Amino acid sequence: MMKKYFITGFSGFVSRHFIDYLDKNEIEAAILGADITRPEFQFENYKSVKCSYREMNLLNQDDIKKILQQFQPDYIIHLASYSSVAYSWKQPIVSFRNNTNIFLNLLETVHDLGLSCRILSIGSSEEYGNVTAENLPLKEDHPLNPVSPYAVARVAQELLSRIYSNGYHLDIVMTRSFNHIGPYQKNTFAVPAFANQLLEVKKRGLNQGDVVAGNVDIIRDYVDVRDVVAAYYALLESGLKGEVYNICSGKGISLKTVIEIMGSMLNIKVNIKKEPSLIRPNDNQIIIGSNQKIATQLGWKPRLSLEQSLVDILGK
Amino acid sequence: MMKKYFITGFSGFVSRHFIDYLDKNEIEAAILGADITRPEFQFENYKSVKCSYREMNLLNQDDIKKILQQFQPDYIIHLASYSSVAYSWKQPIVSFRNNTNIFLNLLETVHDLGLSCRILSIGSSEEYGNVTAENLPLKEDHPLNPVSPYAVARVAQELLSRIYSNGYHLDIVMTRSFNHIGPYQKNTFAVPAFANQLLEVKKRGLNQGDVVAGNVDIIRDYVDVRDVVAAYYALLESGLKGEVYNICSGKGISLKTVIEIMGSMLNIKVNIKKEPSLIRPNDNQIIIGSNQKIATQLGWKPRLSLEQSLVDILGK
User: What is the pTM of this model?
Assistant: First the structure.
């Protein structure tokens, strides 16, 4: 039977890839997308997916209530987020409100209306915070030790999910999604920002150039957004209620190496210029996850290599 | 030298006892109190303490900024809170906003203004959540596992304190304060609510009566508010920056026993009537803390016995 999806953060790149995933796999779906700004992508011409869009502020609980009551979703995917760690240091209040408070509005509305839909609560690898090498790769039972305002907001969101799952028996599945990369990601994020700088160098016909960056020694676990949305679909269909799942590649790579790989793909000799204003007050040096839980339970595995992701980012 | 204290939640009973503590100990202090409602107690006639009051909503960041810039406090004691677990289940959004968001406003304002004041961040034993008997009494390094919306808000507050302490080097000392009891506490809390019901029975000249209650088997660690404020003063003066301290008696007692002790103090035979609507969706069965850390570091110990607290509550 055709399922109804309510997607917050509809205009973002994860939402776009999620819809693509459904359509490419010929999964029939009715999607109601909510966001504060209209998507830049076309959402009217999918084959198996019917999308409609509603401009709204998720801080407005009355609006959420009206929409959910009317739409009666089977699934809610909460993608709306100010997911930049750097931004959260600059605007911690706005970041917190637009992560934790809007999520709580959503949960409370679902509870209040007595909806029985499944909710996918998207969390972040940033929740783990500073970890020591012997704890890598991180499993889901590793203690959370957030070191940025963004990470605290995500931990609070996960804790609220547990409260509503255990206290009110809402059907919630949680993720800790590691660093997404892939086509259409905004330049406010590190990898597309660097890709953009390198493409500018290329456009000017040069074979060497500067990349302005903060701390490029940090090691992260990058996972292609197209693999991420496949995991989200699997979790909506078969994830265990009240459980949290890492979504990651299981491999760590430094930001420096990512920049160098992109440079070599474009035949550009890269000179990394350190910009102190881009260095965060506090940062986790290394984050690598274990995807054993989701792999074992649901058979999900990342399919796209880092190189493939970077080729697609540079070629888009 | 006389210190300046900015106290949020000025109209509450903890604030009142804190001012009493300073004044009784002849500690010279200038206090600026902020709250959304005017205190019911007289605050103009202390000897060594000069108080002024400002009616304000701590969700309004502009107001906070103006006031802190003008007052330039040495200490901020953040007592403003919707500290009822029961209320947080009924109004999770309001509870969260009035706990976590106002605290973040305060931190961000202190950071933004570059103030070097010490901030006392009041947390709660509720942050520990469900624990097993072998982990009692709870030490500060025990993992946090909140089981109510209120507790999540308190954990988020503590995590934000750590972010601002580690990332921005703000001078923050944190507490996990266990169940306060004592004179002037509002009847929305369990112990004064039961005291009130028993005093009503007494007033009608009866020697037995009903007490309407939720789950009275839960075991809590009660600490007199007058001991709590002594701990707060000690932490402001000598607590270690960035550290968290339990404030507790170290002893556990069931709510049922508390009711029975009060009944026997009033010579009333108590019949506890269970009211299902007062039972929370999820509750921690037992919470007992260790006060070893604050005792060892600062020499603080609770001085008032539970019986003394209950006598004073009934006699006020």
Answer: 0.92
Is A261:A140 a contact under the CB 8 Å cutoff?
A: no
Report, as an integer, the average pLDDT of B125-138. Answer: 94
Query: What is d(CA A58, CA A45) in angstroms, rounded to the nearest whole number?
Result: 26
Quote the minimal CA–CA distance from A104 to chain B in Å: 7
Structure tokens at A311: 């080729």
Give the Cα separation of B76 and B119 in Å (integer). Answer: 5
How far is the C-alpha of B129 from the C-alpha of A13, rounded, in Å? 37
Per the structure block, which two tokens stand in for B51?
């108080």
Residue whose entry in the numeric block shows the structure tokens 């992701």: A309
Q: Do A147 and B168 touch (CB under 8 A)?
A: no
Looking at every residue in chain A, the average pLDDT score rounds to 95
Residue of A nearest to B106 (CA): A93
Per-residue pLDDT at B278 exceeds 90: no
Beta-carbon separation of B108 and A93 below 8 A? yes
- Residue A242 sits at the vertex; the CA angle it makes with A168 and A92, to the nearest 5 degrees, is 85
- Long-range contacts for A191-196 (Cβ within 8 Å, ≥24 apart)? A191/A222, A191/A255, A191/A258, A191/A310, A191/A313, A192/A313, A194/A255, A194/A258, A194/A259, A194/A262, A195/A262, A195/A310, A195/A313, A195/A314
- List of chain B residues whose C-beta atoms are within 8 Å of the C-beta of residue A152: 156, 159-160, 163
**Cβ contacts of A186 within 8 Å, gap of 6 or more:** A13, A192
pLDDT at B188: 84
| Distance of alpha carbon B260 from alpha carbon B269, whole angstroms | 8
**pLDDT for residue A316:** 64
pLDDT tens for residues A108-142?
A: 999 999 999 999 999 999 999 989 989 999 999 99
pLDDT tens sequence across A202-250? 999 999 999 998 889 999 999 999 999 999 999 999 999 999 999 999 9
pLDDT at B57: 94
- Between chains, do A166 and B147 touch, taking CB under 8 Å as contact? yes
Q: A71: distance to nearest CA of chain B, Å?
A: 23
- All residues at 6 or more sequence positions from B79 whose CB lies less than 8 Å from its CB, including other chains: B7, B8, B9, B10, B12, B14, B15, B18, B122
- The alpha-carbon gap from A303 to the nearest alpha carbon of chain B, in Å, equals 35
> CB of A163 within 8 A of CB of B127?
no
Record: contact A159-B160, CB cut-off 8 A = no
| Domains within chain B, CATH numbers bracketed | 3-182+223-249+288-303 (3.40.50.720)
CA dist A227 and A298 (Å) reads 13
A61 contacts in B (CB within 8 Å)? Answer: 93
User: Which chain A residues are closer than 8 Å to B168 by Cβ?
Assistant: 281
Pair A40, A11: CB distance under 8 Å = yes
Asked if B117 contacts A132 with a C-beta cutoff of 8 angstroms, the reply is no
CA distance B160 to B101: 10
A204: number of Cβ within 10 Å: 8
DSSP state letter for B86: H
C-alpha A22: how far from its chain's center? 17
The reported pLDDT for the residue numbered B281 is 76
Quote the CA–CA distance of A87 and B166 in Å, as a whole number.
Answer: 18
For residue B212, the cross-strand partners are B273
